[in-house]
Amino acid sequence: MTTDTTTKDAAPGATAPGETVLDARGVTMRFGGLTAVNNVDLTVNSGEIVGLIGPNGAGKTTFFNCLTGLYIPTEGEVRYKGQVLPPKSFKVTAAGVARTFQNIRLFANMTVLENVLVGRHTRTKEGLWSALLRGPGFHRAERASRERAMELLAFVGLDAKAEHLARNLPYGEQRKLEIARALASEPGLLLLDEPTAGMNPQETRATEELVFAIRDKGIAVLVIEHDMRFIFNLCDRVAVLVQGEKLVEGDSATVQGDERVVAAYLGEPFEDAPGSEEIAEVEAAEAQAAATDSAPGKENDR
Amino acid sequence: MTTQTTTPQTPAKDTAGANTGLVAIPPHIGRALATGGGVLTVVSAFLAWTWTSAFPGDLTVYGYPGGLQVLVLIGGALTALFGLASYGVKGLRWLAPAGADSAIKLAALAAFATTWYTIAAMSAQLGGLANLEPGGWIAGIATLTALLGALSLPFERPAPDPFDPDDSSWEQFRHKARHQRTVVKAAFAAGTSKPARELPAFAEILVIVAALTLGLIVFTYGIGTEYDELFVGFLVTAGFGFAAAAKAGLVNRVSALTSKHRTVTMVGAFAAAAAFPFTQSDDQYATIGVYILIFATVALGLNIVVGLAGLLDLGYVAFLGVGAYTAAMVSGSPSSPFDLQLPFWASALLGAAVAMVFGVLIGAPTLRLRGDYLAIVTLGFGEIFRITVLNMDGTSGPDITNGSNGISSIPNLNILGFDFGQEHSFGGFTIARFANYFLLMLLITLVVVVVFRRSSDSRIGRAWIAIREDETAALAMGINGFRVKLIAFALGAALAGLAGSVQAHVTYTVTPEQYQFAHVVPPNSAFLLAAVVLGGMGTISGPLVGAALLYLIPAKLQFLGDYQLFAFGLALVLLMRFRPEGLIPNRRRQLEFHEEAEAPTVLSKAGA
Known about the structure:
The complex is a heterodimer of chains A (302) and B (608). Chain A is an alpha/beta fold. Chain A is built from 11 helices and 10 strands. The longest helix of chain A is centred in the middle third of the chain and has 21 residues, at 136-156. Chain B is mostly helical and 608 residues long. Chain B has 2 domains: 27-260, no CATH class; 287-421 and 429-556, Orthogonal Bundle (ABC transporter involved in vitamin B12 uptake, BtuC). In chain B, the strands form 2 sheets. In chain B, strands 1-2 form a two-stranded antiparallel sheet. In chain B, a hairpin with a 2-residue loop joins strand 3 (424-426) and strand 4. At the A-B interface, helix 2, helix 3, helix 4 and helix 5 of A face helix 14, helix 15, helix 16, helix 17 and helix 21 of B.
């Protein structure tokens, strides 16, 4: 993996740092009587990595779908670089917002290279006539697309597997390929939906590097994740979504120290909650037990 | 055609792991028996099999094989050749790069099945086995010996799965039957191919030319079979023979070469197809040829819609109808409402353009649906076309299409003074009406093939495949799904319209009945879809082969009569059970359906 931090090969969609890239105001999504997302404001500035966390069912993916045009928000609006995003997902991608999916959605029976080439769709123009007549313009565009796709594959470290079928890649590489495919549309903002789900610590670490490298290309990143270490290592700002509403937003320390966040994840402490002394007592007893029995809990594994 | 036909279920000893054959004969004797049996079969084909010439093909002559005997001769020769190749005879090893043993078994099966089918047909038709001459008996015994010998060849027996002792006896029976099936499957499994020796380019092209010539000969023979028995024998021999060649690794090798020299192959294939009318002495089989070609071209157009973009269109034949009616109306036919005779290029373009307009008109509302809903709506629109055309007869509606009488007496084409209705001679060859149209239709097929190939390997083609694979993800990648699907739909319609503009002239008359959803005569929507699925979705040669088979089998097997559609349905069910990816699979599809099998992890460029 390359962790090239130079910005000279910045993506065309990149913007000057500090500028607001994504501006979601009062986004509300209702399904019948259920309010999945309620009046959420979120901004992402260029050069920033913003995290979106929250318990399962908090509405994170629904919010993502509102941002990318898969859902049309019931209320509120989403602006990308000052323009209101159109309510069609392909138009959102064309405007410069690319995404990955929580459950990997690659084109399983296409090759790795073809997957990335599909991502180039909005940045190329060759239509049917051009494909049928095969003029010089067609070959030029096709070659340029392939070069750019190979560049991106090299960026995520998959260039050696360009001709493999996407379905045959191991899980971690499928995630990487999905990111490469999203990058192929030259986005200014990349939305990652649980990019490290199901990964081991090494793979998570590698993904972290990859996200930093993407940020260094000048692409803002908004990421949903459950892995707190990953989020707090990575993000400049973290927003917490609970039951469809934004609870807190701030840097890692603010969010980690916020009682409401802890409560949302672990629940409120109840009346007779054990104090710290009792906890220490229990832990000591457990340590004692562990020392006497060489491998407690292992019996059942046999 | 499936290779999974009933094989003799010889009881095999359950010695797991031991590499014995299906029949308990020592392998070296078996190999000798198979090879010798093959040679004897070849000899027996030159003997008289019966005393009377009442059985078609005249099998009474010594020294000259006739009819079915030729097929038996080929089967025997294949067995003998593969047998010799398995001995490692120099100069024959190229025949079986993936090991000859499975090929011997299938070749012996080809000879055995054809011979015994002949014997059965003769005794049924002439009344008893008494009508057989010694030659017939020799052939029967020779093929049986060869088959038994072949089946005794060793193979890697799969170890039986341990079964649960608590199973009921029915469960145990099923378990054993399943194991038996894997054993039989393993007996016919192909070995891994040895890497090919590098050949010089001209030799590779020669191999391609030889393969194409062989294809032309087989096709011409099949189209020219004169009686039912011969056609059945042809199907049996060709099917098992092809399977044998596939197991020997020959098919893979040739297809590797063809994908390496794609342009050469394409030019060669069209040269071979163009040579077909010149091999015919009269116009009888050129008629079949041109109908097959129309059917195949439309099927290939449908393959863009179904195979690439994944849109199940059950009303596709309507676009063929639109093209045909358009061309008929501007052909100068007396029953056309327009007194207009356009030259062919104009009427062909007009047919394609009008069909494309209809494609857009029908596609725009329907393509917002997905999957089954789309299929049902297109089925409806296909019928709407037919009924509308039926009613525009001047009494129920405006007088445009002449109702159920259709537009008749469509004049023959005349391009630059070349009258398609007349016979022409070129250097000793006489080319009659249908042969003329065959050559014209071949040009149209070439256009469709080029369109298919170029569009599939481009930005738009990738977008189609992406939509087929996962529409939501494709949309999220910036593909305007509706637009891209509409392009596929309209392109498919235009190609069908182009074929229709020739079809109108070939058939003299266009009537609404030709363009139904299901009908006994292809092309109709059901048969078109069947040709695509049978041949292989997403490939070029698949629909061509599928259409040829689907046209020839009903046309040749007249004795099936009313059971034609039943047999057709049965064949489709069997094919979908045993080879869901079609006869000529797209490599992607093959991977989809046989995940754990010997799937290549790398998809080469030629796979698409």
